[in-house]
Amino acid sequence: MFPEVRLRRLRQTPGIRRMLETPLPRPEKLIWPAFVIPGTNQRQPIDSMPGQARLSIDQLLHDLDPLVQTGLGGILLFGLAEPHEKDPHGHAAHDPNGTVQQAITAIKKEFPHLTVVADVCVCAYTDHGHCGTLNPAGQVDNDATLNNLARVALSHAQAGADIVAPSSMMDGQVRALRTALDQQHFDQTLIMAYSTKFASSLYGPFRDAEKSAPVSGDRKAYQAAPGDPRTALRESELDEAEGADILMLKPSLFYLDILTQLRANTNLPLAAYNVSGEYSMLHATAERGWGDLHAMARESLLSLTRAGADILITYWANQYAQLQKD
Ligand code: PBG
Ligand code: ZN
Asked: Which ligand does the CA of 165 lie closest to?
């Protein structure tokens, strides 16, 4: 006890502090979520997400080059559909010649060692913007959606994706994907389940980027309730039982308690999705001069590592060099 014990002794020099510190997670731990659009030479900055843009495949390859050279772990691909390509089921999501499918193949060709993950959902491809097919009452029909999700995942696996990541929060989606993949001999394709995904208010910038907001209603009938942690934990348990290879928590910074509990409950690898709202709020704060952007970013990533995430899915992944600098 004080005065014999003085904890400040352990913090007196940068050298001692560095020795005791958990380092910033290495770029190998990071997955960069990216938005891919058709065409060539297309670069549409996303206003609500400074530093991020919707990119055509050639531009994506261009941006990836330095990131891959400096050790980026992976990329998570999202596609966009034009209004005329959208339908009630989101069938465009499994077009073998779709933009995401083409991007997967192009990235694996150019960067064979980069881990390519594809988001498996239909909300960017349905005319109503929900993550599945609707029943006559206007609710998302769970079982009618599963087959479609399996087709999406298969199209990604066929294009060469290392990992498929079902994000629609349908019950049974992991099993449906595993069964379909195994039947087509894709038994080595990994499933990273968005296993505990909350109905969060932090997806706004992403929905703006993806033009994927539901036309009416919300996602509360399928995404987990922020106030019901037990059911949220059961979501991950169920996905583990269905055969997920990697579990995921999303969002992450407002849910560090859940991350700690997931870490204690599973031996599966755990990914934390540092979502658009978590990214953009730091930008908004920094723009007003109320905080140092990169210091806040480093601190937020460190919190995810501390809480037990193995993999960080983060928009900071394309700015790792800048994060390190100051
Ligand atoms: C949709 C999906 C969402 C995100 C990833 N996949 C948003 C949603 O549920 O509307 C959010 C990612 C982010 O905010 O960064 N299946
Ligand atoms: Zn969705």
From this structure: 1
140 is written with which tokens? Answer: 């998302």
Look up residue 324 and give its two tokens: 């390190």
Looking at this protein, which amino acid is placed at residue 291?
Answer: G
Helix (H) or strand (E) holding 157: helix 142-159
Q: Are 225 and 198 in contact (CB under 8 A)?
A: yes
137 contacts 89 by C-beta, under 8 angstroms: no
pLDDT in tens, 93-144: 999 999 999 999 999 999 999 999 999 999 999 999 999 999 999 999 999 9
For the chain, list the domains and their CATH numbers: 25-246 (3.20.20.70)
- For ligand 1, atom 8, the nearest C-alpha belongs to 203
Residue 312, CB-side half-sphere exposure with 13 Å CA sphere: 29
Which residues are catalytic, by number?
197, 250
> What's 280-319 look like in SS3?
HHHHHHHHCCCCCHHHHHHHHHHHHHHHCCCEEEEHHHHH
Give distance in angstroms: CA of 39 to centre of ligand 1: 24
The pLDDT, as a whole number, for residue 326 is 65
| Mutational test site, ligand 1, from 36, 168, 212, 314, max ligand atoms within 8 Å of CB | 212
Q: Which ligand is nearest to the CA of 213?
A: 1
Ligand 1 atom having least distance to the Cα of 124 = 1
121 lines ligand 1 (CB under 6 A): yes
| Chain segment 252-288, per-residue pLDDT in tens | 999 999 999 999 999 999 999 999 999 999 999 999 9
User: What digits encode the pLDDT tens for the residues 56-75?
Assistant: 999 999 999 999 999 999 99
Residue nearest atom 11 of ligand 1, based on CA coordinates: 203
Look up the pTM and report it. 0.97
